[in-house]
Amino acid sequence: MYSLDINFLQNRPGFKQKSSKPGIGKPTFAVGHLTLVYVGFAVGLGVPALIGGGWWFLQAQNAQLEQQLAQLEEENQKLDVELGNINKIRQETDAVKAETKALASVFNQIRPWSAMLQDLRVRIPATVQIENINQTPPVAAKKDQPPPNPAGGIQIVGKARSFNDVNDFLLTLQKSSFLKAEETKIVNATLIKGTTTESSEEGQPAITTPDLVKYTIKSTMSDVPASELITELEKKGTVGLVARIRKLQQTGVLK
Question: What is the pTM for the complete model shown?
């Protein structure tokens, strides 16, 4: 008997029989897989190189920054020395300015006796006589009051024909730019009776002296700076002091 072998799969459309021979089919390892291997290998080599390069760059930067820091510290030390010198010079300058100001204040409070006497000469009435002029020390300042003028004051002792003449002299002294008007006062005034003396020669009349008033006037030097009395000082012939004051004004020590 005959048998029929019928393979229905072969008769299906689109069916392709696989080859039974080995090595003819597609390779089992794709090319894309090799690309990934190469990339991974490159990355494996590149990352350490990148890290090493970055570390070297940071080390170089660090060394450069340390060098700059050392230079800045050296410059800072030099600046500290120069700053100390500047502060020293500034202190010395301030000390000189203080001494100059103190010296200027002394000049500004000087009342030359030549100017004082000249001022008294033009103010004294014809009926008043000055016997003595003394300089008095400054009186200690009271609480909450400015210090007194170191020039102190003056005391005038003399004689006048009457009490009115003494009062007139007082009024003229109170107008002086060199004295404080409110502290110019009559300390005492005493009447001295006149005397009559017989002449030693026969036939000559007796000599009679008039009544006189012995007075004492005290005053204090004005606080007005000498720099504001230049006109008065020049009129009184105080050339030396005026020249010094003008020099101090030119340098800006005095206004």
Answer: 0.58
